[in-house]
Amino acid sequence: MTARAVVVTSCDRKYLPLARGLALSLRACGLPSPDIDLAFLGFDLGASDAASLSALGMRVTEIPQARRWLEGMPALKSYNVAQMVRPYLPEVLAGYEAYLWLDGDTWVQEGRSVLLFIEGALAYRDRVVACPELDVSYGYMTESLSRSIDNLARLYGLYYGAQAGRRLADRPMVNSGAFAMAAANPIWAAWRSEVDTLYAGSYGADQDAALHMAEQLSLNRLIQERSALLPLPAANNYICSLQLPMRHPSTGKVCISYPPHEPIGIVHLSRFAEMRPHYLERGLMFDRGSYLTAEERAQLDGWQAA
Fold first, then answer.
1. Where do the domains of the chain lie, and which CATH numbers do they carry?
2. What backbone phi and psi angles, to 5 degrees, belong to 124?
3. Dihedrals phi, psi of 236, to nearest 5 degrees
4. To which H or E segment does residue 65 belong?
5. Is residue 271 a contact partner of residue 133, using CB atoms and an 8 Å limit?
6. How far apart are CA 114 and CA 7, in angstroms?
7. CA-CA distance, 98 to 108, in Å (whole number)?
8. 167-220 residue pLDDT tens
9. Tens-place pLDDT, residues 32-70
10. What does pLDDT average to over the chain?
11. How far is residue 72 from each of residues 41, 65, 66, 75, 218, measured CA to CA in Å?
12. Spatial distance between the Cα atoms of 15 and 104, rounded to a whole number of angstroms
């Protein structure tokens, strides 16, 4: 293996139309390359699904723990597997110096963002390269910040208790939908232990929310306690559900909707089921969604209606 780094994603079959857009966007940026591989971690793929991703340059690897996780933790939803596997990247895909995770609902518009993540991880091997969910353009900047902080403190409190939850919520949340770390980073092992514990927990009426946020908030806790964040500007993982971007009328690029309309490096189509009509109306998917087959469009339509 000659590549120093790998870009990794994973999702359940529901998200595959979006993940294929991510793969196409990476190919449009010239990846894979001699220095950067691409990988998809699967757990419920059909043979044709795997073949279509392989044809786009992705190394398709099964998640060895997936069956054990799903059978041993009945509260898990299938997509939770793609969250739980993140701390295990150096084990599942051994041999790289750095790992860049991208959620299946992201796509890359500017290849420089991929390089920023990977080069940061290689240069700062004890840091987590990621974007805080903080930008002057995000909608909650003009709303009540205390409401967002209270909700975050409540979620942290499910895992760590109310006092720790309030302390942890004082920092902006780092989004784990795009992050990079060196293979040698000691946070991997601590994060694995944390995730294994939190996903095995019982959270009563908050079970779904707790499992949905467990890997992200546990990573945030470790980042805070170790002062381990290497932050990148929000345009390198722009959370579209926090503020809808726009297609620039002259360049056609997806840009932040406020002047100076900065082009977005990695477009994160978060909360897709809820936001899908807005994303389609504004043409925010890769290639405005023109890559989707009729079957994929029907799949996304059904997802929205569910």
1. 5-141+173-305 (3.90.550.10)
2. -125, 85
3. -85, -5
4. none
5. no
6. 8
7. 18
8. 999 999 999 999 999 999 999 999 999 999 999 999 999 999 999 999 999 999
9. 999 999 999 999 888 899 999 999 999 999 999 999 999
10. 94
11. 20, 10, 10, 9, 21
12. 7
